[in-house]
Amino acid sequence: MDEFKFVMKCFLFACAVLALTQLKTNGLTIESRIQSTLISSPVANFINQAAEGGVKLFEKASETTKNTVNGWLSSHGGNSSEPQMQVIRYPAAKKTVDNSDLRLKNEVSSEADFDHSELE
Fold it and tell me: How far is CA 99 from CA 71, 111, 117, in A?
């Protein structure tokens, strides 16, 4: 029962505050005066600028992400029947061998991957 009394007290207090803010002085309600004071304050201006910066940051980040994903999809998507260029690196030889033209013709041998004479 104590909880119900607490809720009723809070409800009556909120109603009293609402009724008081609707009183008019010089043609303006107290509520509108408080609202205009809060909106024109330097704190509200700072918060508004921070929110605008956050929106710009989000838009720029989403645009960059979209362009990056589209670039990845266009470079890797393409025609799936087309073989992709493969670059083979052998760390000991420190040489990059591009034999993608041989892979297109299915003429790749074990010697085509890298020169074994450079390993010695």
Answer: 25, 11, 17
